[in-house]
Amino acid sequence: MVSLKILPRRQMAKLYIKLGREISYGESGDGSKQEAAAVFRAVLQINLENTEAQYALKNLIAS
To answer: Which residues contact 20 (CB under 8 A, 6 or more apart)?
Structure first.
């Protein structure tokens, strides 16, 4: 039997932000930016007030 442990929202948001940064700094294609933006937006759905995700999304869009 497999037991799954649900991650707290804060920890899940941190993991998503790390994933978004990895994607955005990876390949230099436009698809990478779109994928990273989607990940940062997912963080904001988890926690709308996450300033780290807001900042990362703003910087990604501005670049």
So the answer is: 36, 37, 39, 40, 43, 53, 56, 60
Distance CA 53, CA 17 (A): 6
Contact, 60 vs 40, CB < 8 A? yes
Q: Which of 18, 25, 20, 62 is nearest to 41 (CA)?
A: 20
Backbone dihedral angles phi then psi of residue 10, each to the nearest 5 degrees:
-60, -45
Residues 10-60: tens digit of each pLDDT:
888 898 999 998 888 776 555 688 899 999 999 999 888 999 999 999 998
Judge whether 43 and 55 are in contact, CB under 8 Å.
no
| Gyration radius of the chain's alpha carbons | 13
User: Position 42: which residue type?
Assistant: A
